[in-house]
Amino acid sequence: MDESGDVLRVRDLYKEHGHHESLVRAVDGIDLDVPTGQMLAVMGPSGCGKSTLLHLLGGLERPTDGEVWLAGRRIDTISERGLARLRRRAVGFVFQAFHLVEELSAAENVELPVLLAGGSPRAARRRAALLLERFGLADRARHLPWQLSGGQRQRVAIARAVANRPHVLLADEPTGNLDTTATLDVLRVFEDLRAAGQTLVIVTHDERVAATADRLISMRDGMFVDDTRLAGSTTGRLDGLIRLED
Amino acid sequence: MGRVLLIFRLVLADVRRHPTQAVILLISITAATAMLGLGGSLHGATQALYQKTRAATAGPDVVAFAPGTGRTAIKTLTSLEHVPGVLTHSGPYREYYTKLTAHGSTGAAVAQVADMTPGPVDRPLVTSGHWIRPGGVVVERGFATALGVHVGDHVTVAGRSLPVVGIAVTAAHAVYPWAPGIGPGGGPSDGGGLIWLNERDTRALESAADTSVTSFIDLKLRDPGTALAWHRNPAVTSAIGDRWVNVRAWQLIAEQDSLMLKGSQPILVIGSWLLAFLAIAGVATLAAGRAARQTRRVGLLKAVGATPGLIAAVLLTEYLTLALLADALGLITARLIQPAIINPSAGLITTATGPTGTTIAVTTVVALGVAALTSLGPVVRALRTETVAALADTAHRPQHRAHLTRLSALLPTPLLLGLRLIARRPGRAVLHACDTAATLTTITGLLMIYAQPAKGYPGSSMANHLRDAQEHHVILAVTAALVALAAINTVTITWTTAQDARPTMAIARTLGATPGQITAGLSAAQLLPTLPGALAGIPLGIILCLPFSTANTTWPPAWSLLGAALAALPATAALTAVPARVAAHRSVAHTLSAEAT
């Protein structure tokens, strides 16, 4: 965390793909501050640069220009190894396509980041059991990803993302592949994480997801076109939404 | 026609899309068929070359030797000209046992006194320069090659320096180093090369006190097929009486020429089978690595209405066509290498005899078999997969191996990743272990052959030395081919592993694995099966050598065998480093985006 209490800080961020005539500016001069514990939703049409922004925030891609600060540390200039080490502890990723390791069970998927961070097998098992229990998947711990429903897979992916208690959870269209019931299950998990003080940045097309956030940013052509604080969104909104879906 | 064109187009498009895989497939099968073609064509190849040389040089059917140059000896030999069934003759000639020095090295030699114009039997074929003239020497080609002598060089014979005026081949004497036929006084020969001198130039040899001499006559028979039993002909035995005459039939000379290959043939045949195995392993790795993509391609073809027959034709045509091309390349390679193997002394006319029909059939069956065996499984699996499942690529889901996963959790990250990669596709690890075992088997054979002391008398120390050198060259070439193919296989396995595990490795990167850990993990996935493979290769190599060993066989020191096995580890690490590093540094975001589509 930096002195301002922002877990994420971005200054004048650019990301370009291609050259000359084929040059595409996926992220075009963005400034962003995300305070600890905030749930931020980023919305916008396909190809507006939402996913690229998320990759830049998590150090999966390097910006063409600008600065990215994560937990008080500038990450756009550090080595690949340094980024990898940062991701172990500071960032958790959730993807639309789940990206679970196919040949590992749900529990083994959740154990993986703990083991990669140097945790003991016992600690990894304990942490995985705890998270799967917390997300209602205790009875699915030994199941392989293809034996799980979409919602269950995404909840395993979220459990894996938070296994090392990261500073920020970055979610890219986490409900894009899910039906309504599964979407609500995932939203409950996000709600639970937010209640526990977890910072979340969620890129989404889904207004239901955006409606549960503390803050909503709209993106067009690589730029922020709107930044709205959703006052009072921390309690009650999800329950209302569930009732609406019912 | 339209169907054939479609198949052709699809095959060509796939080869263009994956040219490296096509090249690896070609190299693997070419190496195997070349070695197989070489091993298969050795049988009888030297005899065939001898026959060609015999025809080109009017080679004798029988050569009769008698020690010394006394009247009795000459009279006995000339009496053989009149034996019924003898068509014509040349000689008697003399051959002096002497030494020849060239470029500072000295070798045993027999100097044959030759006519300025050769007689009707044994007309040596001059391959460079010209035939003898007074004051000049012609050197038999095998001998000239061994000494590095060329036309225009000077050689010293019996203390006299003479220019080399020609290089020639003959069928009247066995190839270097068996040229003398018999030794001084009719005893066994120590071997040596052959030179031809004019009568006048042999006077110095004649006057030397310690020079032995043998007389011989070249005979042409009405029925060359009877040459082997000719010396038992009553007319012959009567002509020889109780005098000492050594009769040598052309078949025995041809057999002597083949002795050089006695140790080489099993090396080549066993080597070719090991290479064929490595080719199978390599192509199987390629086929398995492509299986997932192939399944998706099958799904696409099915979705647009292609029948299973058409799809099978598309998938198999590519492999079978490449296999046939590789077979042809292998046979051409074998034909190009063959003269150096079957005529190591260069003492015979150097023309490749070409592979026999049987050899072509065997190599073609092996090439097509390798392609069919390795591609049929994935093709059938792809065809049996439902279209939607094929498009979603859910047909090749790796199995969950709980024990290995649990075990790997105890290990440092690179080993954890390596072991989990093995657990994903254990068949690939087994193939890699077998590759290593095959390579170490050959290296053990190499160490065994090199550990043997130089063979000595009986026979000819010079001949044995040359035969040892020939065996060393052949085992070195086979080992080099095996090591090269194993190296290609190792790189292929690493790359296909990296390709197959691309999403898993990208996920590991998002969870904090460093590129270095991914590189080390991919290398570890190859290193872990290398060690058992290498350790298994040593006893396998010893078992393969056992049928050729005797009580006097010298075994290589244990440290050299163990050293060879352990050397496989750094070699594998070095080979896997580049493909693993390239794979580990791929963009995570791109990989995951591609997987999501």
Automatic annotation (TrEMBL), chain A:
CDD domains linked: ABC_MJ0796_LolCDE_FtsE
Keywords, in A-Z order: ATP-binding, Nucleotide-binding, Transport
PROSITE patterns: ABC_TRANSPORTER_1, ABC_TRANSPORTER_2
Molecular function via GO: ATP binding; ATP hydrolysis activity; transmembrane transporter activity
TM stretches of this protein: none
One of the record's GO cellular component terms: membrane protein complex
Origin: domain of life: Bacteria
InterPro entries to which the protein is assigned, alphabetical: AAA+_ATPase, ABC_transporter-like_ATP-bd, ABC_transporter-like_CS, ABC_transpr_LolD-like, MacB-like_ATP-bd, P-loop_NTPase
Domain ABC transporter stretches: 8-246
Short name of any one Pfam family annotated for the protein: ABC_tran
Family label: Belongs to the ABC transporter superfamily.
Name of the protein in its database record: ABC transporter domain-containing protein
Organism: Actinoallomurus iriomotensis
Taxonomic lineage of the native organism: Bacteria, Bacillati, Actinomycetota, Actinomycetes, Streptosporangiales
UniProtKB/TrEMBL annotation, chain B:
Membrane topology: Multi-pass membrane protein
A Pfam family hit: MacB_PCD
Keywords: Cell membrane, Membrane, Transmembrane, Transmembrane helix
Domain ABC3 transporter permease C-terminal: 270-386, 478-586
Subcellular location: Cell membrane
Transmembrane segments: 267-288, 300-326, 360-383, 429-451, 472-495, 558-578
GO (cellular component) term, any one: plasma membrane
Domain MacB-like periplasmic core: start-end pairs: 25-224
A GO MF term: transmembrane transporter activity
Family: Belongs to the ABC-4 integral membrane protein family.
PANTHER family hit by this protein: ABC TRANSPORTER PERMEASE YTRF (PTHR30572:SF4), MEMBRANE COMPONENT OF TRANSPORTER-RELATED (PTHR30572)
Protein name per UniProt: Uncharacterized protein
